[in-house]
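Example record for the data management plan.
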Amino acid sequence: MVTAVLDDVERSVLLAETARKRSMRERLLGTEEGD
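Corresponding structural encoding:
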């Protein structure tokens, strides 16, 4: 049961990391296109 909770937390962290990286990449691409 504890491992299931940890898996949930780990999944949430991974999703957050992925979303942050994606937004950062899109922001960089956006600035490059602006130039």
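Summary line stored alongside the record: Residues 2-34 form the longest helix (33 residues).
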